[in-house]
Design brief:
Low-confidence stretches: none
Largest sheet: none
Structural class: mainly alpha
Oligomer: single chain
Amino acid sequence: MWATFWAGNYVVGELNAAAVRGYARLELFSSTAGRAYWAAVRERALSTNEGRYLRFARIVDEEYQKVIASNAPVAEPVMVTESTGHSAAHRKPGLRHPVLVGAALITGSLAGWKLSQKPRRGQ
């Protein structure tokens, strides 16, 4: 996903070749997943693209070849040690749903009462 994002930014001129090289070397190819991704898509990227997309693919491939030739070590994966508690999977069941329903009912009732209090035309 990041490689596609960078390619689009390179094509429209938001990234230059030096930035692409840096992202490829320091972010994409510092991980096993990034290296495996490029190994899987590189032939297709180099043979089916044209114009600035092809230039992007060539720049990324040059950095890939450098990293592989240098036998650069792969960075250790980031280890998450504790949960932030913000994800839905970590939420405790509680009163959130009933409170929201109650607030909606009260708001609707008050709005209905207020609208019924307006004088009608012709009275």
